[in-house]
């Protein structure tokens, strides 16, 4: 151990000596034999000149140049994205009326918007007639967020299920449709699919659609669909009409 410590101290002493010789410590520099004294080195212009400061400041270093190019590139990309968004919004506003969603609080509002567009295509209805359907379903489900009836009207029963709060035999048919088609009972496909099947295959509901086609405004259409297709015990028609207008941007 003692021998090791001696060698270690010797190594440190040797390192300090080398640093002193090169002028890296406070000790006076000791020149190695044959090493020229830099203070005596001169050129035709005097002492060895330092780096040209003008050259250093006139040309930006690599990182500075790279950053400036990157910043300019990002700025251009940002402008391109903003332009694309403005263009998309402009095209969208020309195809569909602007919807008044401020303060709606609907978590499933996007579901209603898609539902309205699909209804117009499948049944060939006007926008306000389709909005009347969506407004009614929106009312029944709290903005397409509550597919199960919270407080069943009939004590001990399962209550309503799905967008229309289908009850009794209609609920059973809905559940069978979901099972036969291997669907999630809360999915868009299950609810929209069963709704279309029920309307298109029941003579009574076909007549309701015919009555709906004769309506002149969204309030009238909301009443016709509510009474004919849903037949709620407590209509709360003002709420239904308000929700229907929402999908028209009113």
Q: How would you describe what is shown here?
A:
With 250 residues, this protein is mainly alpha-helical. It has a domain at 94-246: Orthogonal Bundle (Lysozyme), CATH 1.10.530. The chain is built from 10 helices and no strands. It has helices at 2-21, 53-58, 62-95, 109-123, 127-141, 168-180, 188-201, 203-213, 218-230, 237-246. The longest helix is centred in the N-terminal third of the chain and has 34 residues, at 62-95. The relative contact order is 0.09.
Lay out the secondary structure.
Layout: H1 2-21, H2 53-58, H3 62-95, H4 109-123, H5 127-141, H6 168-180, H7 188-201, H8 203-213, H9 218-230, H10 237-246
Helix pairs in contact: 4-5, 5-9, 5-10, 7-8, 8-9, 9-10
Notable traits:
mainly alpha; Lysozyme; 60% helix; 0% strand; elongated; disordered N terminus
């Amino acid at each position: 151990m003692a021998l090791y410590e001696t060698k270690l101290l010797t190594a440190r002493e040797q390192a300090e000596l080398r640093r002193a010789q090169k002028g890296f410590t406070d000790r006076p520099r000791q020149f190695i034999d044959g090493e020229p004294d830099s203070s005596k080195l001169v050129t035709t212009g005097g002492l060895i000149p330092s780096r040209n400061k003008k050259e250093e400041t006139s040309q930006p270093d690599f990182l500075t140049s790279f950053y400036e190019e990157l910043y300019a590139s990002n700025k251009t990309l940002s402008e391109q994205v903003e332009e694309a968004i403005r263009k998309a919004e402009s095209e969208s506003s020309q195809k569909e009326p602007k919807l008044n969603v401020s303060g709606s609080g609907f978590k499933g509002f996007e579901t209603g918007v898609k539902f309205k567009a699909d209804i117009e295509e499948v049944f060939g209805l006007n926008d306000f007639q389709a909005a009347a359907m969506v407004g009614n379903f929106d009312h029944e489900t709290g903005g397409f967020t509550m597919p199960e009836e919270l407080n069943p009207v009939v004590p001990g029963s399962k209550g309503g299920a799905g967008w229309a709060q289908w009850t009794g035999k209609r609920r059973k048919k809905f559940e069978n449709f979901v099972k036969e088609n291997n669907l999630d009972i809360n999915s868009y496909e299950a609810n929209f699919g069963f709704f279309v099947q029920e309307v298109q295959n029941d003579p009574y509901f076909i007549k309701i659609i015919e009555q709906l086609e004769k309506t002149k405004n969204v309030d009238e259409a909301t009443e016709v669909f509510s009474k004919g297709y849903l037949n709620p015990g407590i209509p709360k028609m003002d709420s239904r009409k308000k929700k229907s207008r929402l999908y028209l941007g009113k």
